[in-house]
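step: validate -> pass
step: tokenize input -> pass
step: predict -> running
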Amino acid sequence: MAERAGRGEGPGPAAMGGGTGHGPAGPGANGTVRAGGGAAAPAGGNDRQPAPGGVEGGVAVPSPLTGRVVPLDQVPDPVFAERMVGDGVAVRPEAGEVLAPLPGTVTALFPTGHAVGLRTPDGVEILIHLGIDSAHAEGAFEPLVQVGDRVEAGQLLIRIDLRRLEAAARSPVSPVLVTNLDERGGRIEAVARDTVMAGRDVLFRVAAPGGAPGQPAGPSDTAGQG
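step: predict -> pass
step: emit ->
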């Protein structure tokens, strides 16, 4: 499944723009790594799991959405699948809440509410793009924050009407991207498999430049809260 996440501050409007109709520029029995608190020994796979947010060797990014994990190269849009905007992992949402994965500042928010950008205190710029060709999914999104707001990890950013999103968008699959890897260096290490719960399961890690590749999380890698 996924590594459980925690608490931990993403991209400017340019990263959110352009291309293919996007508009302007649980977890459970199988185990996962949990957010915050002391970590229990993993049930399998990795011996050490990162805390969410800034960690030795990189940053662990919790999923902002509850749903099924979709590898980025399977997103039905070349702008995302070919990593033209940034690198990360996508989620097909199964619940209508979009949470801040880490604490930070809202740097971009489209009036439609279909995409939001955050910048963390560590300088990681995160783009959450809700659906594919979803800019015209009228009434599907209810933004609850504004550009310039400081948000905490787990704070509700946007509500989604999933039925309207699925009816109006080409796909509800929602990429979660780091858009400034070229500037900061490093790479994305996918962690989550199968399904994730918003604010609790680590979706991916932003590995530090030059660091050794981490082991992928196994299906029963867990580190519960203390």
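step: describe -> Helices lie at 78-81, 162-168, 181-184.
step: cleanup -> pass
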